[in-house]
Amino acid sequence: MKAESDMPFESDKIMFEIYKETTYTGRYCVVYFTELQDHNKAAEISHALAGEHVFDGFIRTFRKDQAKEAIEKLLARLNAGEAVSAAQIELELKPFMPF
Q1: Domains held by the chain: number
Q2: Does 1 fall in a domain?
Q3: Among 19, 66, 73, 85, which one has the highest count of C-beta atoms within 10 angstroms of its own C-beta?
Q4: pLDDT under 50 in the chain at which residues?
């Protein structure tokens, strides 16, 4: 059994979604919901909701920069026309996911 101090807290992870814009450029994008500020929250959430869902989940705040780099590489592949499945995305992001 894990010690209580080893248990992840809600603040230890970042919720994100990868989506394809359907009303703007048709590009694949990511939004990090738990990092949005009040001034851009409504617009970013609206863009994501208007888009086509591809993948969502959580990344740990520990090594979040590496996780975001991995997501950017996935977006580059998707935007280059490569067919990347949700299962492939999950496999590549697994080292950064809390579960």
Answers
A1: 1
A2: no
A3: 19
A4: 1-8
